[in-house]
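Translate structure to sequence.
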């Protein structure tokens, strides 16, 4: 299973996966509320920063996660800048950044198998209605792991491009990034097939 978990003994590392997933879900729900006020966004951002401090991962990890999320924010801005006022664009960009940072923190402080076990336990009662908890749990675990994994791939490809002189513009790192993601997807698909999933 693809995982970016960083071992540690902080409060967040010891916190049950269920609690972290519920809190992140609540935060995500709050952040997608239309017409959310700036003070609510500021509170969410402050909580996110506090949780990173509690994780014991260090300021360098926080800074790296913040920097690696630039492409998501840039995409959000590019998509909206022509259709919405700059205030709305900035507002939504900050919301997306906070969502990415929260997802990253959960992934960095929680083992993938712990997340999967938690989701499976929550979905198990739905089995009587024909729902397959195993597949849904696996999909959820893969989804929440995908954001930081793609961020890491972007950083790796960009650093490799810069080491070669940084020439070629966007295509010089976008194409290798796509190839890397497709390669990892094939490896993951093979792993799932070998387990009969």
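Result:
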């Amino acid at each position: 299973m693809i995982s970016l978990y960083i071992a540690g003994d902080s409060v967040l590392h010891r916190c049950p996966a269920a609690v972290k997933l519920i809190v992140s879900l609540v935060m995500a729900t709050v952040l997608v509320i239309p017409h959310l006020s700036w003070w609510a966004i500021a509170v969410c951002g402050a909580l996110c920063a506090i949780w990173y401090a509690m994780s014991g991962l260090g300021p360098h990890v926080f800074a790296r996660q913040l920097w690696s999320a630039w492409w998501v924010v840039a995409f959000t801005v590019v998509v909206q800048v022509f259709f919405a006022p700059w205030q709305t664009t900035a507002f939504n960009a900050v919301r997306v950044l906070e969502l990415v940072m929260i997802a990253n923190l959960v992934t960095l402080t929680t083992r993938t198998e712990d997340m999967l076990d938690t989701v499976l336990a929550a979905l198990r009662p739905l089995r009587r209605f024909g729902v397959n908890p195993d597949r849904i749990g696996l999909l959820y675990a893969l989804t929440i792991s995908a954001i930081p994994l793609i961020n890491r791939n972007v950083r790796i490809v960009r650093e490799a491009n810069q080491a070669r002189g940084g020439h070629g513009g966007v295509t010089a790192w976008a194409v290798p990034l796509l190839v890397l993601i497709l390669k990892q997807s094939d490896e993951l698909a093979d792993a799932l097939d070998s387990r009969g999933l």
